Structure to design on (100 residues):
C-alpha cells in the first residue's frame, strides 16, 4: 500500500466453499456491511478462514491479514446473530506483536 492507502477486500473460505467481498478503494478503515452465504457440504468444516488482501490488479493482491473463526458458535446460535471481534493475524496465524 503506497501513499498510506489500500484497496482492501475480504475472502471467506469454509469446507471448500468460497466468497469474496467487494473491494473498498483507497480505504484504511473499511466497512463492508455485506452478507455472504457459503454452502458448506463438508461436515468437518468447523473453521471459517477470513483473509484480508490489498487488491492490486497489476502485481496481484497483497496479503494484509487473516483470522480463523470457529463455526460452532454459529451452529449453536441457530438464527440469532453471533457478534465477536477477531484480531487479524499474519500468514502463520500469529497475532501482531504491536497494536495496529
Amino acid at each position: 500500500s503506497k501513499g498510506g492507502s489500500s484497496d482492501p477486500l475480504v475472502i471467506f473460505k469454509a469446507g471448500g466453499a468460497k466468497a469474496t467481498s467487494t473491494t473498498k478503494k483507497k480505504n484504511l478503515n473499511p466497512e463492508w456491511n455485506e452478507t455472504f452465504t457459503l454452502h458448506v457440504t463438508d461436515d468437518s468444516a468447523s473453521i471459517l478462514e477470513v483473509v484480508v488482501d490489498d487488491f492490486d490488479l497489476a502485481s496481484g493482491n497483497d496479503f494484509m491479514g487473516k483470522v480463523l473463526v470457529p463455526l460452532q458458535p454459529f451452529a449453536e446460535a441457530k438464527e440469532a446473530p453471533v457478534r465477536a471481534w477477531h484480531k487479524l493475524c499474519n500468514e502463520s496465524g500469529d497475532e501482531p506483536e504491536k497494536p495496529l
